[in-house]
Design brief:
This protein is α/β, with parallel strands linked by helices. The protein has helices at about 10-25, 40-45, 55-70, 75-85, 90-100, 115-120, 150-165, 170-180, 185-195, 240-245, 265-275, 305-310, 320-330, 345-355, 365-380, 380-395, 400-410; strands at about 1-5, 30-35, 50-55, 105, 125-130, 200-205, 220, 250-255, 280-285, 295-300, 315, 335. It has a 7-stranded parallel sheet, sandwiched between helices.
């Protein structure tokens, strides 16, 4: 079967699908990932097909952070959605072109417009989501807030948010559907139709981390994590290998695809926290250009989390879905520093699991708070013990198997 995975977003929105794609190819499928040009070498390097989607998400995200000043996570979420909506027409055209060579579409939340493409071409599709998007009474919309709105409010807000995210692209969708000879449809009616048809969503996270709410339909289920494609030939450079061997396990600090409004200030803060906590550190520059100097600090570019994190004493990160999961898989304590979208949600889940002393929201981050959290995460053995227990449980799961089974049912 020719499988097209449409992945819109940052590296964290793409990486898990390389591992899922490799697994599907091992099952005999032919897999192409439709994503941004920024990730072409990454995708093809995993032996998967690639189809280009518009937008340089690194440039767009940096521009939106700079314009907003980083003041409000909710405002940033809306700004990113507006940026993607501005390119909805190009995205629809690119997905249509890619889908003509597919037998089935696997769609992420930000590639929802591909659902209309699948309908127009008469192709089956499956949701493959990294964040919980199905409305529920049990918690509020994961991409907006962690503060409960009450049962009715939580569910209503999540439903309204999905519709609101589609409205800016309404004209593009109507034109797309007209080109396929389909009637126009309002976002709410379209979503209701998906649910009535029992459109399946496979959630790529562990039910241990997010147990399925009682009011989710049985065709929306967490199946387990999809880990990025392994790099069996990876070998650390001599500088990294030497640093790790030269002393006690260091901490990791990296904020992934999160751009910084003031990289110099953030770098200075992190450096001060490292010195105050008295730890060695491996620092990943990321999209924010984090740079920290010191005898006990090593700067690195991309190193597979699956290799690096198990060698760390603790990991400081932005609590993106993939990085939070990588910390759990490695069995190490975390110090999450969430900023926007779903990051506060995952930071809260890490705290609930007992693998972190607690999140420090980016807007409240100080050197003293970060140093104190590091000292607690490393010094109190309960966090390492709990992280080890969680890692052992996750090792028993096979997230890709849930998608494989769904494909067999088509």
């Amino acid at each position: 079967m020719r499988v097209l995975i449409a992945a819109v977003g940052s590296r964290g929105d793409v990486a898990p699908f390389t591992g899922l794609g490799v697994r599907l190819q091992d099952e005999g499928h032919q897999v192409t990932i439709a994503t941004h040009g920024l990730f072409e070498a990454y995708v093809t390097g995993c032996g998967l097909g690639f189809h280009r989607l518009p937008v340089d998400t690194r440039e767009e995200l940096a521009a939106r952070v700079e314009a907003d000043g980083g003041r409000s996570p909710a405002r940033m979420t809306l700004a990113v959605n507006r940026a993607l909506a501005a390119h909805a027409g190009e995205t629809a055209a690119a997905l249509t072109a890619a889908a003509r060579d597919a037998d089935v579409l696997l769609l992420t939340p930000l590639s929802w417009i591909g659902g209309h493409v699948a309908e127009g071409l008469g192709l089956p599709s499956i949701g493959v989501y990294l964040q919980p998007m199905t409305p529920t009474r049990e918690f509020p919309p994961a991409t907006v807030t962690t503060r409960t709105l009450g049962g009715w409010g939580n569910r209503t807000a999540a439903s309204a948010l999905r519709i609101a995210g589609m409205r800016p692209s309404r004209r593009v969708v109507d034109e797309l559907r007209a080109g396929f000879g389909l009637p126009p449809v309002a976002p709410g009616a379209w979503l209701a139709g998906l649910e009535a048809s029992r459109w399946p969503i496979c959630y790529g996270f562990s039910p241990l981390v997010v147990p399925p709410p009682a009011d989710w339909p049985d065709f929306h289920r967490p199946v387990g994590y999809w880990w990025p494609a392994p790099e069996p030939d990876f070998k650390p450079g001599s500088e990294l290998a030497g640093f790790l061997a030269s002393g006690p396990p260091p901490i990791y600090v990296g904020f992934g695809s999160l751009p910084a409004t003031d990289r110099a200030a953030l770098s200075s803060l992190v450096g001060a926290a490292i010195r105050e906590a008295g730890v060695r550190a491996v620092v990943h520059g990321g999209w924010g250009g984090l740079t920290v100097a010191g005898d006990d600090v090593l700067a690195v570019e991309d190193v597979p989390h699956s290799w690096l994190f198990p060698r760390m004493a603790a990991v400081v990160h932005h609590a993106g879905a993939g990085t939070a999961a990588a910390g759990l898989r490695a069995g190490v304590p975390s110090v999450p520093v969430p900023f926007m979208v779903d990051q506060p949600f995952w930071a809260g889940r890490l705290h609930r699991l007992g693998v972190t002393p607690g999140p420090i929201p980016m807007r409240r981050l100080t050197a003293g708070r970060l140093a104190a959290a590091l000292t607690q995460a490393i010094g109190d053995p309960v966090y390492r013990q709990r992280a080890t227990e969680i890692a052992a449980l996750l090792a028993r799961e096979d997230g890709a198997a849930g998608v494989v089974q769904r494909l067999r049912e088509i």
